[in-house]
Amino acid sequence: MVLSFKYGRYTLSAMALLCLATRLSAQSSADVKQIPFGKNNRITYDLHSGKYSVSVNGTIMIKEAFSWYEDARQPDTAKIRRSFTIAPLKDRFGTGKQYAITSLENGITKQQLFYVYNGDNGFYTALVLRGAGARSRSMSPLTTTALQLPGNDTIRAVHVPFDNDAWVKYSAVNLPAAAFTSAEVTALYNTANNNGLVIGAVEHNDWKTGIALKGATAQTTGLSVIAGWTDSTGTRDRIRHGIVTVGDTLCASPKIYVLPANDWRTGMEQYAKANRLAEPRYIFNWTAAKPFGWNSWGSLQTKLSLAKAKTVVDFFADSCKGFRNADHTLYIDLDSYWDNLNTGGMTGDFSQLEAFSAYCKSKGFKPGIYWAPFVDWGKSPRKVEGSQYNYQDAWTKVNGQYHEMDGARAMDPTHPATRERIAFLIKRFKDAGFEMIKIDFIGHAAIEADHFYDPTVHTGMQAFRKGMEYLVDQLDGKMLVYAAISPNMATGRYVHTRRIACDAFKNIDETAYTLNGTSYGWWQNWLYDFADADHVVFEGATAGANKARLLSGIITGTLITGDDFSVYSHASEAAKQLLQNQDLLAVARQGGVFQPVDHHIREQSSNIFVKKSGRYTYVAVINYAQTAATFSLALQQAGLSAKEVYMAKELFSGKISTQSNTMQISLPPADAVIYQLIRNK
């Protein structure tokens, strides 16, 4: 008896069916390619469907992801044939292998590239288009409806803002509530053990990239990495992203880093370091000590004058001699309204500025200045300083209208007028002897515009790169460069230190706001030489709030003060006490980065931060509430042994205690402490 089975409209014998199944199995096996990465991870790519899945330690974490680009011509995916190739890889990231999936779609060669490096637990991916007409204003190398972290614990997703303007905040939400687009990078993490996944762009010269999430269940979310993301509040743009192409024959997405991490915090730090590899610094390497100093916007603001500025210098020289960085100096920075010290504007008399600069140096300090190089505050037709052009020639247009934000009008970073003004004023600053510059509102240079003067520039990020490179060229390695309002990621190539958040001054709410940025953006200390918590102001705040505000600077990175020390006040005594506490200053001078320990829902700041430095471990605790609170820290959370006993010195008070297993820290309302722990012998 011969067994037979129906297969479609054919009737096949068992032997024939077995042969067919074997052929189908062989075809299916040939279509599925395995790409190993890390210790026990792999990408499984189906050449037939054009989709791939990512498994971590044997568990699928990203399911059936695919790539896409904006093109009105939609190919018939069923007819696309894909090839798979492997090539050796050696570049700034290390050595490894490049895996390419190549197809021809509507006359365009499309490549999904995977970059796998030895010793890296993650991988990079990018989408590349080649051929006549290779161009796009939006594309994605990774989109999935099913990204899932294993286990049954609570999973949170992190929203990272594009910049630090308008008092924007970071946030973290439970996965089902995730419905946002994070700028350039996001992290998903398990609240029980900090296991997580970091996904982010490491290239920012052409594209603004958003990571869109749409939570589905407690452990599952849809996710799309979108190169070409713009948003009126997210990126401050009012039009779509510009088109990216090289000669109309090449278009590449940014490289996207996909990094599974045992601890999402170390994963974010690794992501920051990867950015510095992908796009090396354009500015000179900072080799001097971590900057300490004073900035006039903290209190003096519009009241700035030469006499007041010199009196501030005298305060630090005579009454606060213990406040110095490791190079035994301070940066004394004149912020906005430095033009109170000159007549005639940018082209006028700089003699008072020169006198201030010389006076600073005579006291052993370094003079600093402020400028917003890509905006016009005047907003009226007139001649551009240092140029034959008029301002209206250089104003950026969006939808036919001049682009304004923060009260300033954007200037095209590629226009000769903007560049000539930069060259003119930076030279005057250098000639006046300034050794630091605080640059502000540089996000105006990254706006998507109707067009740019430079015909090779089509996107806001391309314009930003042109403008920032020209600015750094004019600075010529002569100044410490500090960025205030600016894009979070793209600014990293061009400055030494960057403010972690928007303006902050003295009260506990402002400390909480600043440390929201540090709680979720501390890792930027690996992208920049230093992050900064803005000017620390004491006047008018309680003793506890002063401690918390000072500690926010020490935790975040550099230490810049901001009180009006030209007159005696409560701030003068607070500064003499707090800014000359050598135990605190020793921590502030050190390298290393404070890492947040506790993370809360939505926009709440971490209360506990930890840093290791040599033999010591530092534990900083801040109570933002207007009521007393007790905080608990298991020593293992600080990387210490639960079985050892540690001597703990509280650095504000000098009090000594012993700690083991778990620290219980009780704080009054709006107050802070910092402990130095060392193993008790």
Quick description:
This protein is an alpha+beta fold and 681 residues long. The strands form 8 sheets. Strands 7, 8, 9, 10, 12, 13, 15, 16, 19 and 20 form a 10-stranded antiparallel sheet that branches. Strands 3-4-5-6-11-18-17-14 form an 8-stranded antiparallel sheet. The protein has an 8-stranded parallel sheet with strand order 32-31-30-29-23-22-21-33.
Protein model, in words:
The protein is an alpha+beta fold. Helix content is 21%, strand content 33%. It contains eleven helices and 41 strands. Strands 7, 8, 9, 10, 12, 13, 15, 16, 19 and 20 form a ten-stranded antiparallel β-sheet that branches. Strands 3-4-5-6-11-18-17-14 form an eight-stranded antiparallel β-sheet. β7 and β8 form a beta hairpin. The chain is globular. It starts with a strand and ends with a strand. The N terminus is likely disordered.
| Beta-strand content | 25-35%
**End-to-end span in angstroms?**
87 Å
Number of discrete helical segments: 11
In angstroms, what is the radius of gyration? Answer: 28 Å
Keywords:
681 residues, single chain, 11 helices, alpha+beta
Secondary structure topology:
Elements lengths: L3 E4 L2 E4 H18 E6 L3 E6 L4 E6 L2 E11 L12 E10 L2 E12 L2 E10 L5 E8 L8 E10 L6 E5 L11 E4 L4 E5 L1 E6 L5 E6 L7 E7 L4 E8 L22 E3 L3 E6 L2 H15 L13 E4 L10 H14 L11 E3 L17 H12 L3 E6 L3 E2 L14 H4 L2 E2 L2 E2 L1 E2 L2 E3 L5 H16 L4 E4 L20 H16 L4 E4 L13 E3 L8 H14 L8 E3 L10 H14 L2 E3 L8 H9 L3 H8 L5 E2 L11 E6 L2 E8 L5 E6 L10 E6 L5 E5 L1 E6 L3 E9 L2
Helix pairs in contact: 3-4, 6-7, 8-9
